[in-house]
Every structure is written in C-alpha cells, then in structure tokens.
Amino acid sequence: MADVRHRQALPRLKNSVYSANVRRARHRQNAKRRTSSFHITQERSTMHNDPSASFVRAALGALDLPADEATEKGVATHFSRLRAMAALVMEVPLTDEIETPSIFVP
Amino acid sequence: MSEVAKGANASSASEIATAIREGTLSAATAIENSLTQIAAQEPGINAFTGIWADEARAAAAKVDAARAGGANLPPLAGVPFAVKDLFDVAGHVTLAGSKINRDHAPAIDDAFLVAQLKRAGAICVGATNMGEYAYDFVTENRHYGATHNPHRHGYTAGGSSGGSAAAVAAGEVPVSLGSDTNGSIRVPASYCGVYGLRPTHGRLSRRGAFPFVASIDNVGPFARDLDDLALVFDALQGRDTRDANQGDSVPVPAVASMRLNRTLRVARLEGYFSDNATHEVNCAVKEFCDELSITRTAQWQHVDAARAAAFAISAAEGGALHLKRLQSRAADFEADRAHRLMAGAMQPAAWVAQAHRFRSWFRSHVRESLHYVDILVAPATPWPALPHGTATMHLNGRDVPAAASGGMLTQPVSLIGLPVLCVPLPRAEGQLPIGVQLIAAPWREDLLFAFAAMAVRQGALAG
Fold it and tell me: Cβ neighbours of residue B55 under 8 Å, at least 6 residues apart?
C-alpha cells in the first residue's frame, strides 16, 4: 500500500523538498548497488565509496605511479580481484610454525 | 581436414636427426624445409617475432661440412628449433613480448638452454611470440599481434608461450622452448594439441631467460611427439653453476625412461580439478582414464587457495620486477597488463606472506598424497581453445574471466614446483585439442615419461 501511495503522491510533490529527498535517496541506493560488486564499468563517483578504490588511489601516489582516472579504474578492478583471491588464502588456518621458505625447494 | 593437418606432416626431430646422420637428408635441406613451412604458415598464425634464416643456413652448412668430414654428429644435429622470445640468443634483442625491451642491447650470450640445444647440434631458426612479459594465457599481444591457433584461425593458441606451441603444432619446427610460471607451457600445449613439459622447479637452468616470478618461474620444451620431447629434455639437462635457482639434482634420462615397463600407481585428481573443467573436458579425461583402466581417484584440499596463492605471489613479484618501468614508461605497456602489475605491486605484505606460508603447507599436503601414487592425472585447461577476445565463460555455475581462468587448473600444481607432462588427448575430426596434466613427485620426470610411453603403446595417446 505504501508503494501505491507514493506513486500517487509523487506527481503532486514533484518540486517539493520531499521529492528532492526521494531522488537523493534513490541515487544513494543506486550508487551503493554499483559499488557492492566492484565492476569495470563503475563510475568514478562510486569509487570514492569503495575501500579498494581509495587504497588504490593512495598506493598509486605512494609508489610514484601514474594516477590518471583510467589507471585508477583499471588498477582498482585488478586490485579487487586480488583482494578476493587473498581472502581465499587468508581464511586457511595455518599454525604459527609454518614458515615462508626463503629459497623454494620442492 | 583440420587446418593444422595441412602443415603438420613435417618430419619429427628424431627422424630429421637420423636422416642427417645417415646421409639421406642434409641439414641445409632440413632448415630450408622449416623456413618454407614458416613462410607458408606465418601469415595465418603469427607464431614468430623473429626469423633468422641466414644464421640458420650458416649453422646448417657447418653441420653438413662436419658430416662430410666424417665427424660424429651430436644427437640433434641439423634439427630446427624455435625459442620463446624471452630466451637470450646471442646477437639478438630479447623482447619478452614487450615494446620496452626493444631498447635493450642484443644479448651477448645464449641462454643456457639455447646453448644446450646448440651443443646437441640443433639449429635455432627464430624467436616466437608470447604474452607481454609472460603475464598471460592467450598471446593476444598488442605490440606483435595475436598468435592464432593452428587448428582454428581466430582462436587463441594459449599463452604465454603461445608462439612456441603454435610453431610446433603447425609443423614450422619440430621442437621449441617455452617458459611456464603459472601454466604458460601447459595451457598452450593443451590448446594446440602438442606435448609440453614443465620440469621440477630447479631442474633446468633459467639463466638467460627473462624473468617474471622468480620463486615460481620455470622453463621447458614443446614437441609434436613424445620421443622428441624426451630427446630434447635429455639435451637440456645439465648443471649450470651460474644459476643459483637450479637444484643439485641428478639428470634423469627421459629417452631411457620410456623403455621401462614398470607398474605405476595412477590416480585421477578430482574435486577442484573436475569441478573447474567443462563437461567436454571431463569426458575426454575420463575416456583417457578408462582406456588405461585408471580407477583410483585422489583429492587435494584447499586447491582454490593454492590457485589464489599463485595469483597473489605472481602479481606481487611481477609487479615488483616491473615497478621502475611502470613508473617511467607505463604508456608503453599494454594498458591492462600495466594495471594488473601495478595492482600486484601494491598488495599488502600480509597477503603475500600468507600466500608463501600457505605454499609451504600445500607442498607438505600434496607430498603426502604422492606417497600413495606415482602419477596423478588432471585436465590441463578448463576448456579447449576459445575465440580471441572471449571475455567471460560460464563455469561451475558462475561467470569467470576467460583469459585469466585458462590457467586455473595449472596454477595450483606449479605453485609447489611439481614436474608436469602435458599430453594431448586423442580427439575426433574437427574437435579442438585438449591436454591432460600428468603429475609426479619432485624430480620424478622419469615416471612421467615411463607412463606416457606406456599410454602411447596402449593406444591411449598418439605418439
């Protein structure tokens, strides 16, 4: 019922403060939906909400790498993939005694 | 008739070497045959980035002169071969599939493996195309063009050693060299229907091969038949005191191993490996196992994490290796490759350290399974070769990036340095090739060759 009421009310409230708030809320919802699974086609505005994107932007600067928009987007896509891969490895329980081999010998 | 059949009736390495020794074929003719085949095939395949005809002809003349003078010819005398364009060949710039390396000076010395083949009498006819800096499973190189699968134009030859596999599959050369970090020999071998060997980590010297991931990189041969692969592997082995990565192992005679008729314990790897292969691939592997009465199965734990660890380590070490080039010449990389390397270079140390620690655990876990079997059988690729530019594939109920996922069945095995022989399965007319990985314990390449030879004798594999 609430949906029906809104649909009926919106035309009348088109230019009201209420209408602007609804539009802003919808924009925020759409932005959240786009950033929930980090996708190559996402817009720059949504990257500001993604922790990988802000990390990538900072790391590009720290490593003296080019920080143009295309690079940020491309690197963020790959970094998200790496983050998903790392999660698989990080969740494997390893005892403290397992060491990193200094020179790998099979 | 498949496209490859038009050019694949060229002689094998062992036939060429025998004919030259017996005087029924000159080395000059063998090299001209190879160059003619290259000229005919290259417009459609683009396997080569450099063809060195004059040098090859001069080397052939020396072989013919030596034979005329009554010299004892070495085992591969007069046999043409090609090398992935990351092996140093004296007098030539090693491109490693990049634009940036064009600015490098020509190599002064041959890479160790190139020198070993030349010492055995083989003649290098050129360098082959590859994915830029070997970070690739498709060889769709933007600087030098894509390499096409000799079995079907417009399809990938696999990568990153795509040119080396395609050159062999198309009959341009009987044998070639490649490198394999995450599957770069096994993936193209599977897609192109040729034999490929990734030896035990540290078995062969990597000196003179442009690096990618120091802790995983490996090098090895391609061939159209098993006899040639064994012949070349025997020639490649040897202690290189200038390669710190090489293990202090005793050489395994591959040719002699193939004559052994011993009972081997063989199992098919299931779980992750069958879950991440298409129905077509699983059916082909099952037919192979049925043919050889392989009924045992085995499973490893956390294989998805092993693939992920290989992914993380490769990105980190590759990113670190290329960081200076990325800082100063990012625009000269393929854009996607630059972005992937940059992402790798900025991974938190905790991820990479955990990946290395996991690698230690996974090695111990897999070694236990190898106490009970001699050979494990697993598909080499999730699918046969795909059309160039394929973005995603549906696999196991989800969409996966097609190019990066080509190595998802090879990465867990190479992470822990096991020797793997990739063999082409018999296919019906018109079907694209599919390869399987034969996996053994470290340093047991002899078991791989013994088993593969037995499979050839029983008709489960084409020789």
Answer: B91, B124
